[in-house]
Amino acid sequence: MRKLVRPPKPPRCILRAQDAGSTNWQRLRGKDRREIWVKLNEMQHRICAYCERSFAEDDSHIEHLYPRAKYEGLTFEWKNLFGSCNSQYSCGIYKDSTKNPHEVNHELLIKPDQDDPTHYFRYYKNGRISIRPHLSDTEFLEARETIQAFNLNHRTLVSWRQHHLAPLMQMEEEFILWCDLCEEHPEMELDLAAEIRLLLIEQIDTPFQSIKQHYIREHLDLLGLVSDSFIARKSGGSSQKTRKSNQKNRKKTRKKRYNRHYNNRTKLGKGSKKRKPKSNHSSRSHTQSAGSSHQK
């Protein structure tokens, strides 16, 4: 689940239904539903609001976070509508179906357009979602209820997260090397920070954005070069044109940067004394120990 920015102006069909005092969702015509989808896709970019997988038009539905059967007065409440995938084992359909053995407390569910899910959840390399420590009692209950209600740790979702995370995991060794080089050459930190920022931006509005950005912050940005405020500023998303431009620029510069860094590493190995390992801190040892203890 990721932070969403809802278009402030509701679709016209929603406003008409509210003015008429209607609670009959089935009376919506096809063009009305398409109008709602235009606004939802503006917010979600055809990605499920709950599990973050991409969906096609025929594999999705307009979801009421607070179900119509129980909260009739919220049927045409714009802030109650999200786009959900059609999985029978997670997300919107599962939440309110008989397949869900858990009695959902809808009042505790995290609203991704109102709450920031990154405050509640952490992610593991194995694809699972967990609850962050040090939450308040209420926040802990909200996080637990949301994971259970949408079945966010269903094995299919876990497998998909692993698949989408794999390309970033292949980069971890390179970034560990880069961080080691920064200890000898602090001026390289500017290039490293720029690379990390571009990686983070590239994940915006892509499937399983949350776990990928979490992994970059925890396992690639070992020196803590990118601040939380940078993530917050970018959380609203970026245009497709901007993301493609970032990807193109990164491809152009990455090879040049790594060549320079590897050349510097080679120079360090020629005629220079081997660096003694630090007894109380090492980026490499810290990362390896973190990985072995299932760090997020």
Automatic annotation (TrEMBL):
InterPro entries for the chain: HNH78-like, Retron_Ec78_HNH_endo
Feature: compositional bias, Basic residues: 241-284
Write out the biased-composition intervals (Polar residues).
285-296
Outline the segment boundaries, as ranges, of region: Disordered. 234-296
Write down what this protein is called.
TIGR02646 family protein
